[in-house]
Amino acid sequence: MQYHESMIELVGNTPLLKLNSVTDGIQATVLAKVEYFNPGGSVKDRIALRMIESAEESGALRPGGVIVEPTSGNTGVGLAIVAQQKGYRCLFVCPDKVSMDKINVLRAYGAEVVVCPTAVDPEHPDSYYNVSDRLVRETPGAWKPDQYSNPDNPRSHYESTGPELWQQTEGRITHFVAGIGTGGTISGTGRYLKEISDGAVRVVGADPEGSVYSGGSGRPYLVEGVGEDFWPDAYDRTVTDEIVAVSDKDSFQMTRRLAKEEGLLVGGSCGMAVVGALEVARGLGPDDVVVVLLPDSGRGYLSKIFNDEWMNDYGFLEEGGASVARVGDV
Ligand code: PMP
Known about the structure:
Number of helices: 9
Radius of gyration: 19 Å
Strand order of the largest sheet: 1-2-10-7-8-9
Strand content: 15-25%
Organism: Streptomyces iconiensis
EC number: 4.2.1.22
Order of helices and strands: EEHEHEHEHEHEHEEHHEH
Low-confidence stretches: none
Bound molecules: 4'-deoxy-4'-aminopyridoxal-5'-phosphate
Mean pLDDT: 93
Oligomer: single chain
GO molecular function, one term: cystathionine beta-synthase activity
Cofactor: pyridoxal 5'-phosphate
Distance between the termini: 51 Å
């Protein structure tokens, strides 16, 4: 019989998919690492598993313990699945810009969720960083993975994502492009790829316009899960060779094209990363292989990016192009 013992065994080993349509006019091969094939639907399953298993080994997380974490959703899903399988309780803190869809998913897996305002400084007592610190202090048996500073976050990518990409491309990858949130993905994957290629692989970060990584002050932008208003410890800036800043509009329009043209229903940070990857690929030749990592699925953004009215409200659609036909219109 062929079966897996637990969802935990299905983390990682995601497929690489060639982009054929949005790459029109580009000579390089552009491959997408499609992370929504992870059991929790995002790249964050990788770090959840690594962080929890390391905490078990170190004794920081003990039987009956409570996992407390500020998370924009995907890390929460990964942690919730691994925690549920291993018998831990989860208590998550989310900023209020995160879609209700994502919060409901966390609750479906049995996690408890506290929602905090986005429009306050990180130092404010109600900021999602401070609320989670308070919950850690007040909850017996609490352990905070802290994906922003936990070395097991980049380490999970150094041990899984990086080696997978090297094997899948048979060592032919020349460029790696990813968004930067905590910085774990780009730092761990990038470091592995640089080491194994003797520095030949170029590592490019894609960043929302306004975020600190591309020289901004942290001005609010709408792409979720990427960009920051501070520099997390999980991000190793020596690994990144170049950062490309991408607007919300370009990110979301590309996200919609990926669904329409490539059959990839993915999140807004994926569209952003692809815009960055295409910018890099445009100057390259036929022997170059650009891999862009797509962190999550589009299912959590149906009422935003894939909703014409929402897109129109922000001026993100060309010519007001609502495409919902009413009965009688057709
Ligand atoms: N995209 C989405 C949707 C995410 O949730 C995250 C994680 N915050 C990222 C991209 C960025 O990944 P990382 O934290 O590894 O930099």
